[in-house]
Amino acid sequence: MKKHVAVTAVTGALMLGLITVAGATDPKGEFIGSEKCKSCHSEEYKSWKDTWHSKMVRPRKDGILKEVVEKWTTDGTEKGEGPTTGNVTKAKFKLDDVRYVVGSRWKQRFLVVNDQTGGMQFLNKQFNRYTNKWENYGNANDWNTNCGTCHTTGYRILEYDEKFGKHGRTVKDSYGEMGVGCEACHGPGNLHIKSQKADKKKTIFNPANADIKAQSKVCGYCHIRIENEKFMTAQGNPREDLPAPKVGDSYKAGDDWTKWYPEQAIIPGVHADQPANKEYVGDLKGLFKLDDHAKGNGIFEEAKHHQQYQGFLQSKHYLNGELSCVTCHSPHAGKGKLKKVQKEACVKCHDASFTLDRYMPNTGQTAGSLFMRSHTFGKNPRKGGAGAGDMGPVNYYE
Ligand code: HEC
Ligand code: HEC
Ligand code: HEC
Ligand code: HEC
Ligand code: HEC
Ligand code: HEC
Questions:
Q1: 197 and 122 in one domain?
Q2: What pLDDT score does 23 carry?
Q3: Which domain, by its residues, includes 350?
Q4: In a domain, 7, yes or no
Q5: Which residues line ligand 2 (CB under 6 A)?
Q6: Residue nearest (by alpha carbon) to ligand 1 atom 12
Q7: Nearest CA-CA partner of 367 in 391, 383, 343
Q8: Quick one: 282 and 255 in the same domain?
Q9: What is the pLDDT of residues 90-130, one digit of tens each?
Q10: CA dihedral 28, 33, 36, 42 (to 10 degrees)
Q11: Quick one: three-class SS letters along 351-392?
Q12: Within this chain, do residues 229 and 301 fall inside the same structural domain, yes or no?
């Protein structure tokens, strides 16, 4: 009986073009938030707090940079006016209208409300910590429908309108918490916190227990650059993230997202028919280095940021099945273990000539003149630019 009701509800909605799954619930019931893990895992909680994952998206007052506040009107250069305009609605905004800040380590972007959708949109400038100046930022899509799965935890589309424009649009969505919380890498925690002690291990995902290639996929879900032609933003444009396979569902750490809707997800360097050395168009244009140096080595370094997974897949480290992202990066210290220091990772297996500056050149552009380290680990690396990771401590406005 219950099932019958659900089917009618779906068909009814489809006639309007709206996919609403009967019984689709807000992810907050399953993804309970990092604060709930603190009482039993205080050391893991503390080490996570020290990472940038926990600082990704924050309310303005907690995360806005000092320089940003000081330079809001101008950075002192001729065209150095700070943000004034919402990218989607073109409405005017002031510093006080900023709800959340996104990023802080090397660049910061600013979220204000989009009163047309109820979602949030970006302002028209981003702050570059390397140059200490404003630069243009033009993404004209609602934040939650274009950046959501990588910058929140437990993201879920709740309502989708298939009849909008050519492909449809995301109408309603939600998430467990802002930023990259515990459950981004461990899956939903609701059953885990309620379970008996004997069932605790069975009710939560630990990347360390997955096979080595699957470990990297946990990180790859976000450390990647894709185009999604199945789900569109609130504005009806292809999304840059991969929500779950269907409306009403969230990605859970451990899921094999590389198998989802392969006809509509363009994931260069991951899908066999979409190699790294192909020329892509649109938003994926210029994704990898394709010059003579790259062709000569048969290794195509990341040319933009958040592509570490796509770089790493080309490396012997990955192909040999000997290393995963977790080998060098652990988000945690605890139970007598110290946090792994990435910079010291190479000398465990190589001699001292294997330095980061040589073998992990900064190739992936993230803001003007600022780059992320390549993860291709080629034996004939190129020279890189200035590194986003080397920028020194951040000054927050207090
Ligand atoms: C009421 C206490 C409690 C809370 C709250 C709790 N855990 Fe646990 N967790 C445990 C216990 C007990 C274990 C099992 C430890 C063991 O047997 O070594 C465990 C184990 C784990 C493991 C290791 C599993 C494995 O297979 O190695 C992870 C990961 C984990 N918890 C994550 C979380 C996350 C994420 C949250 C918050 C969503 C959370 N825990 C909340 C008690 C808790
Ligand atoms: C970026 C991904 C990521 C995030 C975010 C994350 N973890 Fe983990 N966690 C891991 C990985 C990977 C391991 C495997 C152990 C290792 O190599 O450190 C792990 C292991 C654990 C373990 C088992 C520790 C052990 O010694 O066996 C617990 C418990 C845990 N995490 C809890 C948490 C809690 C609580 C949070 C949030 C406060 C959290 N994790 C956030 C990736 C993550
Ligand atoms: C839900 C998306 C998501 C997942 C899953 C994820 N990351 Fe991240 N990661 C991010 C974002 C977003 C940032 C940028 C944070 C910032 O700079 O404020 C980041 C930053 C980082 C950084 C640089 C900052 C730092 O704290 O050192 C490292 C290293 C990193 N991630 C490694 C990993 C590894 C390893 C895994 C898998 C165990 C992983 N990430 C899983 C989204 C994710
Ligand atoms: C496919 C996942 C993904 C999507 C989609 C995505 N990001 Fe990110 N973003 C990341 C990861 C991972 C990082 C950190 C690693 C890196 O930049 O190489 C990052 C870094 C950032 C940073 C810099 C953080 C810092 O501390 O300086 C900002 C700002 C940012 N993203 C904003 C956005 C905005 C705005 C959107 C949507 C238009 C977006 N991202 C879409 C994964 C993603
Ligand atoms: C857990 C051990 C381990 C760690 C840690 C490690 N490597 Fe490797 N590395 C290997 C193995 C195994 C190979 C593959 C050797 C082969 O098959 O020829 C390799 C190969 C390489 C190669 C040569 C690739 C080629 O095409 O010949 C480079 C460059 C490299 N590593 C750089 C680094 C750097 C830089 C670090 C530190 C950030 C690092 N490695 C950390 C084990 C490791
Ligand atoms: C062989 C060791 C090794 C492996 C494997 C590895 N990384 Fe890294 N990663 C590093 C080192 C070293 C740095 C630079 C750290 C620093 O400068 O302090 C780094 C930096 C980063 C950064 C920050 C960007 C920057 O330019 O500083 C991100 C994000 C990141 N790694 C994600 C990943 C992800 C995701 C994977 C798996 C797909 C991965 N890493 C695999 C060693 C590794």
A1: yes
A2: 65
A3: 275-390
A4: no
A5: 34, 37, 41, 44-45, 48, 53, 180, 182, 184-186, 206-208, 326, 330-332, 334-335
A6: 197
A7: 391
A8: no
A9: 999 999 999 999 999 999 999 999 999 999 999 999 999 99
A10: 170
A11: CCCCCHHHHCCEEEEEECCEEEECCCCCCCCCCCCCEHHHCC
A12: no
